[in-house]
Amino acid sequence: MRDIQKILAILLVAGGSIVSLSAQGITNHGASMQLHGDVQMGIHADFTNNGEFNNNEGLVGFYSEDAPLRIAGNSEIELFDAEFAVPAGILLENDMTINNNGNLIEGDIQTSRNTEAPYTLKFNYDTFYTGESAFSKVDGFVSFQNKEEFTFPVGEPQRLRPLKIGAMAINPNGVCAYFSEDPNEPQSLAATYNTSSSAEFGLQISSKEFWYLKADLPSQVTLSWDAMSEVRKLATNPEHLRVVGWNKTTRQWEDLGNTASEGDLATGTVRSDFFTPGEYEILTLGGMSDAAASGFSVLELDNYYLSPNGDGNNERLTIDAVADAPNNTLQIFTEDGALVYQKDNYQNEFDGNSNVRGGFSRGNGLPQGVYFYVITFPELRQKHQGYFYLNR
Length: 392
Fold this sequence. Notes:
This protein is mostly beta strands. It is built from two helices and 33 strands. It has a domain at 296-390. The longest helix is centred in the first third of the chain and has 9 residues, at 4-12. Residues 1-24 have low confidence and may be disordered.
C-alpha cells in the first residue's frame, strides 16, 4: 500500500502544476488531503474516506476496467472536477459533493435507496455535469444546493429517467431518485401508494414507475416517458398525460397539471404546473380519460339501493341508459375516492363485488356502505354520476 502521508505531501506542494497520480494502492484515508492547482488524481481501487478530503482543486477520476469500485467512509468527499469511468459501476456509500464539473463517462453511480438518510451525489451552486446516458447516470439519489433549475441524471440500469425541476427563485436544496417499481407494492419503500385512490375522478395513475423528489420552493417538474412506461394505458393523447403526486396529508393522488407536453405515446415529456414538492411523497405519470379531458357534460342521476342477497330484489346496479348507449365506461368509488370497480361497455353486471386491484380483493364482496359511481357515454359526450347504498 502506498504511504498516504507521502501522497499528501506531493499534493500539497503541487499547486499550479499538473500531477498525474495513480492511487491504485490506497484503500483507506484517515488523514487530511487536499489537491491544489491543476493536480490530477486517479483512483483505481475501493476508497474509504475517514479523514478530511475537501476544498479541493484539480481533477479526481475514478477508473476501473473490469471491477466495480466502492466509495465509502464516514467523512464526506468534496471535489472540484470529477470523472467516472467504471463500466461495472461505482457503489457510493458516502456523500460526494462536486463543486464544478462531473463527467459521467461510463458506468452507473449506485447509492442506497434509504429515503430517510440517503447517500447522494451532490451538485453545488454553479456545478454542472456532462455525459449522462443510459449507461452513465446515477442509479439512486442525486441532490443539489442553491439552484433555480436542475435536471437530475437518474435512472435504472441501461435506462435514463431524468427529472427536471425549475423554480421562480433559487431552491436551497433538492434531492431525487427514480424507482422502476409499482407504487402499489414498492420494493424499496415501506409505504404503499394505491393507484386507485385519486382526488379526481377519471385520473389514471401509472403502476410502472415513480420518482422521489424533495425541494423547498414551489416548482415545476418535467417527467419523461419511454416504451416501458406504457402511457397508452393512461391516455390516448399525450396532451391528456399529467404529472401526478401522492399527497402526504390526504393520502391520495393529485393532478399536478400539464402545462406543456412533447412527443407521442412512445416517448415524450410532460411539465407540471407549480407545486411544492415537499407536500408529496412521490411523483409519477398520470392520464385523464378522454371523457374527463374533453369536458363532457356531467348529469346527476338518481341514487340507488343495492342488496345483493339472492332474494331477486335490487341485486345489481341497474342504469336504464346503458340499453340505448352500450358504448360506455362505469367506475365505482368508495367515499374516500378509491376505485373499486371499472367496466367498459357496462350492461348492469355490478353485484357488489370489486374487480380492480387495490385496497379490496378482486372478486370479493365490498363492505356495506355508500359508494359513488360515474358512467361515461363518449358518443353522447356525457358523464352521469350518483351514489348508491350497498346493504349486506
